[in-house]
Amino acid sequence: MEQRGSVNADPAQRPDGRCTQWRNWSGFWILGLCNNFAYVVMLSAAHDILKKQESENATASTSATLDLHLQGGNSSNSSRYDCNPVSTAAVLLADILPTLVLKLFAPFVIHKLPYGFRVLFCVVMATASFLLVSLSTGVWMSILGVIFASVSCGLGELSFLSLTVFFSRDVLGGWGSGTGGAGVAGAFLYSGLTQVGLTPQIALLIMLVVPVAMLINYFFLMVPPPSFPQWKSREPGYLAVTSEDRRRLMDELQEEDKSIPVTEDMNTGPLTFTEKLHVIRGLLKFVLPLGLVYFAEYFINQGLMELLYFPNFFLSHAEQYRWYQTLYQVGVLVSRSSLCCVKIRKLWTLSLLQVVNAVLLLFAVRYLFLPSAWLVFVIVLYEGLLGGAAYVNTFYFISKESEDRHREFAMAAASVGDSLGIALAGLAAFPVHRYFCSL
């Protein structure tokens, strides 16, 4: 195996060079940021655009009705929770369902589309989403823009997670940290641009730089290994690395954890449908805890946060909700960046702790026993830490414990876990919202 200290090798060219490792780690960080960016900003941006369209185009009576839904007003609201007429889970479902459908079926056929074309498709879809929502002249165009953002994010996530198998395992930390950064960067950038006086349309047009940055980063910053099939389709199951790279990765795996046996499985043929089902069955120990974490997490975010209102606090209801979401994103960023420092194998522990959070806040909404929003700030920050840790550790251990032939397919298939949990949380939030707002 080539030594890192070789003076005859260019570190930017050697597969294990420090310069190459830094460029690839940074590249995956930027991919995570750009991939999730549109998903983060699209909900609030589409909300603003729709509100403007309805105020301009609707009749007076229809406009008044729609304004109640879009602006959160409720002139007849007698609930002690200061409820919006429609739960925020409605918008969440519109944004997550296309991603969920894509993640359920794409892992079985996505190998027919080479990685280079996948990235180009994600960039086109993200660009189209920003353009459609910013330049829309009707409600249907804004909704279509949100769907495009969802497709771009879903396809990008399962593709880039699969892409990590061609690189050293530390790029998973870069990817996880970047996706966490997208939440904070997207929320602050959109809010900041609109706060200084720019219209939502102009703010979204400025954000077209994000898909361009993804394109430049992928094709010019990252350094894939020679065995990487950039423009060629390949069946999952063919080994993703050359024999030399394979030996290096095996040595690396044994150094990290000597308890995991590493064998020379020379079967390099494509995975059969039966093998894929077998891989999915083995992934349940990872996917179920991840799905449960995200179910509890988004049940809190979309079903309970808007009901955790403290009238005598110095922040308004809208400002309290905005800070809940911001602190949650900060927690996600910190924990998704923690893989280099701590690794947590007991994923069910994170799931149970998140469920405890959901139950605690559910009872807090029902019986109003929390004394101040400050305590909720701490809880939602902790909630974000648990969710981010569950995400990065799930995919780290899938990458570490999957066989070489299964790893690429496993990384893509497991990505359905968080989206399934989010979708179920959105559905569960509707009756909960209706119950509390009827009190």
From TrEMBL:
Pfam families in alphabetical order = CLN3
Which compartments does it reside in? Endomembrane system
The leader peptide range reads: none
Which keywords has UniProt assigned to this entry? Membrane, Transmembrane, Transmembrane helix, Transport
GO-annotated biological processes: lysosome organization; regulation of intracellular pH
The topology of this chain with respect to the membrane is:
Multi-pass membrane protein
Q: Report the transmembrane regions from the record.
A: 28-46, 89-109, 115-135, 142-166, 172-190, 202-221, 347-369, 375-397, 409-430
Query: Where mainly located?
Result: membrane
**UniProt GO cellular component terms:** endomembrane system; lysosome; membrane
Write down what this protein is called: Battenin isoform X1
Q: Which organism is it from?
A: Solea senegalensis (Senegalese sole)
